Amino acid sequence: MKHAAIAALGAFLLASLATSVSAANQNGQRYLIGFNAGNRAALVQSIESNGGRIVFELKNVSGLVADLPAGALNAVRRSGKATSIEADGIRQLHAHLPDFTNEFIPWGVLAVRADNVWSTNPAANTPAVQPGSVAGGGTVVGVLDTGIDFGHPDLAANIIDDRGSGVIRDFIDGDDDASDPVDPLATIRGHGTSSASVIASVDNAVGVIGVAPKTRVRPYRICFADQTRGCPLSAIIGGLDQAITDGVDVINMSIGGSAGFNLEASAVQAANSHGIVVVASAGNESTQKPSFPAAYDTVLAVGAIDIQNNPASFTNTGGWVDVTGPGVDVPAATVRGEGQDAFATVNSGATLTLDPNPLSGSALGSRTADVVYAGLATEADIATFCAANACAGKIALISRGAITFAEKVTRAEAAGAVGTIIFNNVPGNFFGTLGTSPSTFPSISISQEQGTALRTAVQAGTVNVTIEVTATDYDLVSGTSFSAPHVAGIAALVRSANQNLSPIDVRKIIQSTAIDLGAPNRDNVFGWGLANAEAAVAAALAAQ
After folding, report:
1. What's the pLDDT score for residue 123?
2. Coil vs helix vs strand at 381
3. How would DSSP label each residue in 136-168?
4. How many Cβ atoms are within 10 Å of 389's Cβ, its own excluded?
5. Nearest 5 degrees, angle CA 246-CA 2-CA 438?
6. Which of 348, 288, 298, 359 is closest to 318 using CA atoms?
7. 8 Å CB contact between 533 and 506
8. Residue ending a domain, choose from 472, 499, 523
């Protein structure tokens, strides 16, 4: 799953922002501090006189982010000049691929009926945005995420590229370049690019097409591309504040955490007050507990469904969820070269067709070898099935279960295997990850049915296969991280149809026009239902 979130005080603060605004504080703790406007100067004096440092101040909310050394917190509290002081925290970023060489409409865009808004060419069976149609033109969506691939051919024409402006839009490194950078610790690099792709991939004859293919995207880097470091609240708030200053029409945040924070809530409310529709993912913990920022009253909270309109197995639910959107195996652009595809061919020894998925973290490359069955690849199984170098130079066929995928692959490779095939222990195939223990050789997954047939053939004789994992510019992505951008794209279409609608108007239209999937009216599983671009745009046009 590829599941990822500053305004300067003034010119004299820009130099201090050249270093990372979310870097670990060496001398204390980072805090989110709210204040009444008349107390600003006294608060700053209290912070600095106690050895603290102003990291940045917000333009649209009476608040700032500061580093306070040990012992200074109580002194700043006692000054009485702050309305709230909260420790900085972290929010989290909430496949055999189609043929992307010819543009197609992803199933999610079809499900929310966005293509019925901007019109396609059914005779040619290809996407075609018709001149004069409502396609998001004149709107900007701020994507607060891991950053973006500015050069991706399926997005570049719709990205607002302000690199070199000197305005901070990367709140991780504290600079003006919101690219999704190369990072050896990254496990979900491309998250922001995929979120933007769902919203606004262009109509350009290759890849996919977004929900609102004429809207512009303005990226803000507020998250590291891994779940450990996540999205610092200070960066999220900085991104919200700058998006308000930039005047975007819609904000998408595919992030979440279990608690609300005063300064974050103030920034969200400020966005609402400035006419911005805020959309956020409901989260992937399979719980009814509210996730923030989605659970704030002025945010559209979006759960996830699969292609059969069933709730995604991971989606959060509850009375605080407003609507649902497509969020399972969504085809989308990713950072170029970060996507993976897998192939497998049985060369001899059996007549089987294999339809694999790549294991996330797999090495790229191709291997041709005979297959050896290695059980579950536990220590005992490796000792049994790989005895006397039986796995050396072979491709290991392993059953899912008992231990992690990473452990299976690591043990098989240690026994000399040059590739790994893991087959499911329940019907169908799956998408798995090797986490922080990437493989040396290609590693793929196949379905229970295909794996069982291959195991039977291997136990009966010699079976030779070729497996391959290749890099791509696209991926299949899952999570409420990608259901939310479908709704953000719909909000852009609604705003494009009627610029006079307030954020609450847009939220009400999207809620009231949703396709009811569960119990009549709003329910705790689907909210108001599956967001419906066609009906929402019709309602927006009727309100003119």
Report:
1. 66
2. helix
3. STT-EEEEEES-B-TT-TTTGGGB---TTS---
4. 10
5. 130
6. 288
7. no
8. 472
Residue 366, C-beta contacts closer than 8 angstroms, at least 6 positions apart: 442, 466, 467, 468
Residue 64 sits in the same domain as residue 142? no
Structure tokens at 201: 């991939």
Total structural domains in the chain?
3
pTM: 0.85
For tokens 């699969």, what's the residue?
Answer: 306
Q: Does 160 share its domain with 120?
A: yes
Residue 462: CATH number of its domain: 3.50.30.30
Residue 120 tokens, joined: 């396609």
Q: Does 2 fall in a domain?
A: no
Task: Give 119-161 pLDDT, tens digit per residue.
Answer: 877 666 678 899 999 999 999 999 999 999 999 999 999 999 9
**45: domain range?**
11-91
State whether 169 and 241 are in the same domain. Answer: yes
- Contact, 340 vs 325, CB < 8 A? no
| Res 185: pLDDT | 78
d(CA 348, CA 13): 68
pLDDT at 17 over 80: no
Q: Which residues, 6+ apart, have CB-to-CB distance to 34 below 8 Å? A: 61, 62, 63, 82, 83, 84, 85, 262, 263, 266
Closest C-alpha to 240, from 216, 259, 261, 225:
261
Written as one letter, the residue type at 301 is A
The CB-side HSE value for 108 (13 A sphere, CA atoms) comes to 37
Over residues 510-518, the mean pLDDT reads 97
Give the length of the chain. Answer: 544
Distance between CA 397 and CA 447 in Å, rounded?
12
SS3 labels along 111-131: HCCCHHHHCCECCCCECCCCC
CA distances from 474 to 20, 111, 136, 205 (A): 30, 20, 23, 15
